[in-house]
Amino acid sequence: LKPGEAVFWESDTATHVFQVMGGCLRLYRILPDGRRAITGFAFCGELLGTSLEGSYLHTAEAVTPVRLRRLPGSRFHALVDACEHLRPQLFARMCAEMRAAQQHIVALGRLGAEERVVRFLLSTAWATGADRTRPITIKLPMSRLDIADYLGLTIETVCRTLTKLKHDRFIALDGRHTILLRRMADLRELACDIDTRHDDHSTAAVRSH
Amino acid sequence: LKPGEAVFWESDTATHVFQVMGGCLRLYRILPDGRRAITGFAFCGELLGTSLEGSYLHTAEAVTPVRLRRLPGSRFHALVDACEHLRPQLFARMCAEMRAAQQHIVALGRLGAEERVVRFLLSTAWATGADRTRPITIKLPMSRLDIADYLGLTIETVCRTLTKLKHDRFIALDGRHTILLRRMADLRELACDIDTRHDDHSTAAVRSH
DNA sequence: CGGGTGTTTGAAAGGCATCAAAAAGCGTGG
DNA sequence: CCACGCTTTTTGATGCCTTTCAAACACCCG
pTM for the complete prediction? Predict the structure, then answer.
């Protein structure tokens, strides 16, 4: 698929399951008045269209050139049903998706603009499996508007936040789609990142009443 | 469980699966600085703790008195694995959960305060399986603070929005936990609601057993 | 019938959105 | 290789919605 082309639309009857073999896609829903909410991005290896009988949950559209593998949904589920060791794999993927969704909900519901942007940068970096303590250069294939619609912000706010981070020496921008993350520890602080902390038991105990 | 008691905490090792036999629970995560994000509420019939090997995704805490059924996670998954007709049921539940999460993401990312509150009221009403065109009285077991933390707002904003809806004759309040929804068509308009109809059909089907 | 918690209302402040325009990329064609 | 025009991004000024802070009020339980 070329950039901008869609794999399927939100209203489509879900007939096939897809696997991304390369490239990046945006997954989104459009509100009646035209507002767009991007629920996630899909990268190489990920599955699309697994989570529904009926119609797709969102529109899937290519951000970069994308290569896909396609399988009829019925066949996919038959395979999963038959293969003893395939089932836990699908289950694990769905769990990961759920975890990501909940993380997203927390971010949209309770984090400020800066926290959201930094968290997005860090999660993108970590999706590549990079060392979490060392500075890293990441590629953001999607546009600022995509990022804004993903984070529940406007494009201007995303820009301003990035420039502020740049001036504060937390990141360095190189072109539109390349960002260098430096001072990871400070960034993690800014992101209000709970995943990497291990003091949650005491926190939970305190707040449990 | 009595109100305020927890079934499990976010950091706990996920050992058991629970089914709610009665009452209402809140599912939430706490940020390092104390902010709370409620990711959802659980009602009679729903399953808790299915979506993870490892540790639970959130804390589950009783809002009202709650009755639970408990099953070791290993046993639960063994049963599902063995039972040919149980698998699609679990799958459907997970899909419904995912759909709810995505709906929530859209609301938090792109809807204003009034839209969020109205959407919450309508989805609560429809969870009871009521007629969608006729006025209906609903019970909200949770506190205003719970609603605020669920909708990504403050308690004051939730209050103000409800008061405004009352003065505009869209709803009527009776005590703290009872709300009459009138003029459903107008409310749906306010909620920016396109596909809740489709959503709830499957949700109701899943809930029913 | 109090006391305490939870809710509602009010005033002021702040953060993000909106509107507007300049600057920077980027592909195209000379 | 550079000039051109378009799109995307960045920056700036202003306004609105939601939050914050504060206090009055209602509800519930003993």
Answer: 0.92
